[in-house]
Input
Amino acid sequence: MLKLHYNLEKVSMGFVAAIIVVASIGGLVEIAPLFTIDETVEIPDDLRPHTPLELAGREIYIREGCYACHSQMVRSLADEIDRYGPYSLAAESAYDHPMLWGSKRTGPDLARVGGKYSDDWHRRHLIDPRVVVPASIMPAYPWLARPLDTGLLGDELATLARLGVPYDDAKVAAAEADASAQSRPDSDGADAVRERYGAVIAVRVFDGDPWQLTEMDAVVAYLQSLGTLTKVPYEILAEGGQ
Amino acid sequence: MTDQNDPRQLPGADPHTGNRKVDPVTGYSTTGHDWGGISELNTAFPKLVIWALVLTFLYSVIAWILLPAWPLGRDYTRGLLGLDQGVEAVEGFRELTAERQGWLDRFATGDFATLQSDAALMGRAMPAAARLFDDNCAACHGTTGQGGPGFPVLADGSWLWSGTPEEVALTIRHGINANDDSRIAEMPAFDWMERADREALADYVAALPEGRGDTDIPAAALFAENCAACHGEGGAGGLEVGAPSLTDASVIYGQDRDTILRTLAAGRIGVMPAWSGRLSEAEINLLALYVTSLSAGNAETVQ
Output
């Protein structure tokens, strides 16, 4: 064995090839099987994709760099469960392209923030965090009050559909209409959004202004959806982790 | 052609035995490489490192047997110990909360009078309740229950839905105007009303806390007709419907003329999220007792 190594060291290209072979065993054993093992990502029956309005909010979340300070993954550790709730499942971000797990927590984790605060709180907090949390160091985002540009939502849904997110042709075609209807509970389109995305989605005036569709509508709708896409993490926690 | 793998043909080697020159100082043989008279020692690989390698190999074999390890297509070997990260995390969580759970379970009953009379229990529970409040309630209601713009004060003894622990627990459980029918309260918009009437009404309501409720003016009739059904005669409020008193100093949105005009024009529908499902029944009861204790010192009007 050592003799083989002794001789291999003297054939430089052969030695480079040997290093590549040995180093890739680690990747092959640890990463490649995740693509075939069923347990890696088990899509729950009740998992729903984001609605167009939530998706627009997600884009703004990325645009404003929220992920730089907020993670979206409750790790499988006792104290994380105690503070945030059930640990995150891989399936919860299966429809996220890219996922926003993050690793830095200057602010709290947001994976379970949906439904924790009222829309009004989110609106005030985003416009000026110090109004509701005096000690907050989060920047203010007052410009979110501007109108939401929904022009690219149809294309975005179509792109995500090609990546395996369950948006059918009807959802893609209605993307813009659905984004606007989700923040107008009294409009004709409101029932259509519920029909397409399920009764569990929130159809509300997220920004407190029913006459205009704003970026605030989208961001608040997105934040209120975090952790509500499936109930399975809560069931798993109640059943003891498996 | 020289054969690279034949030690006898390498530079510095004995052409018959293949042995290299031995360094006279250290006694090690040399590699045969020569850089203008400087030769390289062929120092043996340290034994310690070889043993460390052997030990890590042994450990990995044991780990493969005991822990989840080898992929098998769609499945993987589970290991003899049957460990699962998710199960371990939940066990750890239960262990972490076990000490707390011992006394917290007593709050599940919701027998508030008995709980409150147990001084030892309350002494233990209230600091934990303060942390629970900080994590879940303080974002809107403030760390000391002082409220905020649009979010009710909890520390002033003035209530929207009654301040008994039972009612507070109900509010926490179901929220207000959340996805539940238990607590629904909406101030409708009076945008259909003549602007002059709205202004008269705003002046009238703005003056109510100062006790200047002149009952003979037309605005008083407007109030009796449109507002008194919820806010009570004279604006004393209605705990059954969550309508705030307009006669005391406690306000949510403000009781100046401009704010009232805005409220009349667009209505108000404040939302408190429902906490059942997110917090346990015992935690909700614990918080209800904590919230009622916030105003214990400064109850101005106990309704």
In short: Chain A has a mean pLDDT of 91. Chain A touches chain B at residues 2, 7, 10-11, 29, 32-33, 36-39, 76-79, 81-83, 85, 87, 115-121, 124-125, 131-133, 234, 236-237, 240-242 (CB under 8 Å). Chain A has twelve helices and no strands. Residues 2-40 of chain A form one domain.
